[in-house]
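Subgroup meeting minutes
Present: P.N., E.W., G.H.
Scribe: E.W.

1. P.N. recapped why we're keeping a running log of single-chain structure predictions: easier to compare across weeks, and new members can see raw inputs and outputs side by side.
2. G.H. added today's entry (330 aa).
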Amino acid sequence: MRTTRLLCSVVALALAVLAGCARGRHDPTETYYLVAVNTKIAYWQEAAAGLRAAAGQLQVKWEMVGPETYDPQAQREEFDRIAATKPAGIMVSPADPAVMQPSIDAAIAQGTPVITIDSDATMSKRLLFIGTNNYDIGVTGGEAIARLLNGKGNVVVYTILGQANLQERLEGYRSVFERYPQITIVETVDIKGDPVVAFDRTKEILEQGKLKPDAFVCLEALACEEVAEVLDRHKMTGKVVLAMDTNQGTLEWIQKGGIGATIAQKPYTMAYYGAKVLDDLYHNKLPSLGANFAADTRAPVPVFIDTGGTLIDKSNVDEFLKSAAPAAAK
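Output recorded in log:
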């Protein structure tokens, strides 16, 4: 009996030590934030799922915040509100890097780890960027357009001016088009984060008949569903539409043939891995968050972590949807 009681005491003590270690690693109030561009769109809901999964594994708190429409100033205000609480870490996708830079730098100065995901702010003191190599994505899209147009045609591009990641994608497209002098970008449409702008301008372009576009390229996730809808209503066939990301509507238009292809990113992976990086930065503090790590050959953090991208078209869209369904169910 005495031996049994002793064994039980040892086991209880061991469990208490393990529990204490777990509590020592993560404080009950430890919270990691994602400051998104537009919290209502599917892309950022997918990122939130990645953050939630990582936070569950780490046994910490998490929250995605940000405006419900494209609004760089509102995003900065949300960032400042969160930074004032001095959280364990913040990941942010800057809608406008110039607008966000002072806030990022201030958070770093107060000792809060900040990383960027999806869209970077290279002039800020953010610690690193996790996301897509946007220039390479543009090259992938440009090569697809050149192939589908057989090397010649007029292209309309839809973007959001001021977003560095979208500008990098456009530069990738242009680098490919330089090799095809018969491919011309005839207009670049700033949709300002509003898909209605894409719908209305596409309708005007078709009805005015001056630009005679052969292809429509969307550098962001919102426009191409609207483009496909307008083309469908006008019974316009034979046009090439290349989208961005994997909104449900985009994938359905690929299945129906209204969109030729889209380039899938990995917002889930960005936020999931971002949380793990922030957790490490919080618990293994750097000597200085404000150091110039980009120029340091022994830097403890990388400058960029590439999460990759995939071209999805009619040949693999069904397979993509099947593989995505189990993940969504989780």
